[in-house]
Amino acid sequence: xxxxxxxxxxxxxxxxxxxxxxxxxxxxxxxxxxxxxxxxxxxxxxxxxxxxxxxxxxxxxxxxxxxxxxxxxxxxxxxxxxxxxxxxxxxxxxxxxxxxxxxxxxxxxxxxxxxxxxxxxxxxxxxxxxxxxxxxxxxxxxxxxxxxxxxxxxxxxxxxxxxxxxxxxxxxxxxxxxxxxxxxxxxxxxxxxxxxxx
Length: 198
Description:
Number of helices: 10
Radius of gyration: 17 Å
Strand content: under 5%
Largest sheet: none
Low-confidence stretches: none
Number of strands: 0
């Protein structure tokens, strides 16, 4: 991979990782509701789960989807349904103190599995593999995964910190409810490109 291609890949990884999307909105909500430390498994699940997804897509999984085009439609329906369910959960999240032991952020495995129904993650993985591994070699695919892993984790971590800092202003139940409903609405809005593609 040339220096120019690596620079372009790094820029793409940063922009796509730091901009709002389902992962970042959920991490901000988790940071606000559960704090940074309790959200670490969620952050690691996002970062490492996405790297694993990139590796599998690069290794040929995308060819399975190309061979069975109906699978794209199935993936879209499942993704939209799951994100709507998550938005409902965020909107109805009670304060942690009210929930006690039941209030739990997403686990590592849940966050890693979520990448497979996250439309933005699919778009990022497919673009990264098709645009930045023209020769489709294993070394190039692994390099794309490493670059994304190195850039993605600090990016998603910044959204968790933002949520944690916002928690200072969410001390009243009314403000927390408003915040959670806003995050849920933004999560639903992030589905717009999936439901109505250009």
